[in-house]
Amino acid sequence: MDMNISRDLCQEDAYRQSKPLEIYMFIDPLSTCCWGLEPVMKKLMVHYGSYFRFRHVIGGQFPKIVECTKKKYPDLAKSWERAGCLSGMSCDGDLWLEDPILAPYYLPIAIKAAELQGQTAGFRFLRRLQEVLFLEKQNVSKKHVLLDIASKVNLDVDEFKRDLSNSAAVKAVEFDLKMNAEMEVTETPTLVFFSQHLEEEGLKISGTYAYEVYVGIIEEMLGYTPLQAELPEIRTFLHTFPFVSTAEIATVYNLTTEEAEKWMKKLKLQGIVECVPVKHGYFWRYKNSTVAT
């Protein structure tokens, strides 16, 4: 952890925020570690989301994946499979054997182009991109795949298409890369926590940790123990997160994988969710969702 993070680049956002904390999550859209942190991040949002604003920042390291030679693809595929089994967030490594990603440089621009339609739109786009990548083994460096994702999460596709070649999206990526350098971010995921008090420096934590570690950081940054929000009724949770893994349900609701799976199967019988088998486990789609997944 690093307590010496400058916030010069972030001051304008800070003045607009109303919550006491702001969290910047530096991500690599191709990273199994970032994908595997989703259950913990959802639990943090459910319990303490009223205390912080959250934004994604493109990590400066992700293009290194193109340095992977063809001979290393089998190793990368195995690494994905292991990561998916360990985190409970399925990863289908066959992508690297069937249609490897050779030029992912479009991805950060696409993510920022989606964010130009609003932060919520950006969140939806990134999540769907990860689902398409890790679960459906689609090559997300292809433009037609990105356009399909934009359509599925209800973006204005014509506007998104224009923004893919718009200087605003490119400048947003450049700003993110500048933040990487300013905050000395060298790996993903990295989370940087800021207080609303600009004179206070941020706290940086790189890698993945247990939920309790992030709660401890929130308490430290606030200077007091925040009230933990009660768990929402399952339909409320699924309305907010309409396509989730068994691991995400288990983590948020403090269940074992077996308990979570049994619970979701009951909801399936009630017609509330649809079971979506993936390579390693199951995902669950809320049937009342208006956003395609």
Automatic annotation (TrEMBL):
This is ClpXP adapter protein SpxH. InterPro entries: Adapter_SpxH, Thioredoxin-like_sf, WH-like_DNA-bd_sf. Adapter protein required for efficient degradation of Spx by ClpXP under non-stress conditions. Interaction with Spx stabilizes Spx and exposes the C-terminus of Spx for recognition and proteolysis by ClpXP. GO terms for cellular component: cytoplasm. It is found in: Cytoplasm. Interacts with Spx. Belongs to the SpxH family. Keywords: Cytoplasm, Isomerase. It comes from the Bacteria. GO terms for molecular function: isomerase activity. The gene is spxH. SUPFAM superfamilies: Thioredoxin-like.
